């Protein structure tokens, strides 16, 4: 267990995330990353418990039959699923607000699926998969150019950002290493968006590193 936020403050909840409990090393889960960024941005004092995917404890299936993480425990409440957790945290800890502008609610929702289809095309047409992925990057670039700040909806880091950015992290890392693909210069606004996020204290405190991402994805390319 490791105290993860609110230096000197008593933890008010526990977050269960992918990682190595023996070494307290954070794993490469973008959904856990989404929750951890939210906890950090809201400065919610919390403890971390690491769950090894190859040795999940029995109690996890009791509180979350799907057996997935992240899961949080707040008082007597157990909350699974990253989207549900972020919504719960916004309700229980409304300041600072991370509610995204309504017009941004659907932005990036299909990015991870398009990335996976491009990285692991299977029986799909690789050219079509790449074109769809590039279309996602083009759409995101246009949205970002229309905002008044570096993030989706302006200068305030919000719930859509913490959903999308960890997925982009996996996508950019995996595609560069396994496919030799890098974001074209014409989508420089997307690159700047990602770079701005990586500079935040919340990101630095929750970054598991590219090596961990590649280790997690390597079996899919074996």
Automatic annotation (TrEMBL):
<keyword id="KW-0560">Oxidoreductase</keyword>
<feature type="domain" description="GST N-terminal">
    <location>
        <begin position="19"/>
        <end position="97"/>
    </location>
</feature>
<keyword id="KW-0216">Detoxification</keyword>
<comment type="similarity">
    <text>Belongs to the GST superfamily. DHAR family.</text>
</comment>
<dbReference type="InterPro" id="IPR036282">
    <property type="entry name" value="Glutathione-S-Trfase_C_sf"/>
</dbReference>
<dbReference type="GO" id="GO:0045174">
    <property type="term" value="F:glutathione dehydrogenase (ascorbate) activity"/>
</dbReference>
<keyword id="KW-0808">Transferase</keyword>
<dbReference type="GO" id="GO:0033355">
    <property type="term" value="P:ascorbate glutathione cycle"/>
</dbReference>
<dbReference type="Pfam" id="PF13409">
    <property type="entry name" value="GST_N_2"/>
</dbReference>
<dbReference type="GO" id="GO:0016740">
    <property type="term" value="F:transferase activity"/>
</dbReference>
<dbReference type="InterPro" id="IPR040079">
    <property type="entry name" value="Glutathione_S-Trfase"/>
</dbReference>
<dbReference type="InterPro" id="IPR004045">
    <property type="entry name" value="Glutathione_S-Trfase_N"/>
</dbReference>
<protein>
    <recommendedName>
        <fullName>glutathione dehydrogenase (ascorbate)</fullName>
        <ecNumber>1.8.5.1</ecNumber>
    </recommendedName>
</protein>
<dbReference type="InterPro" id="IPR036249">
    <property type="entry name" value="Thioredoxin-like_sf"/>
</dbReference>
<dbReference type="InterPro" id="IPR044627">
    <property type="entry name" value="DHAR1/2/3/4"/>
</dbReference>
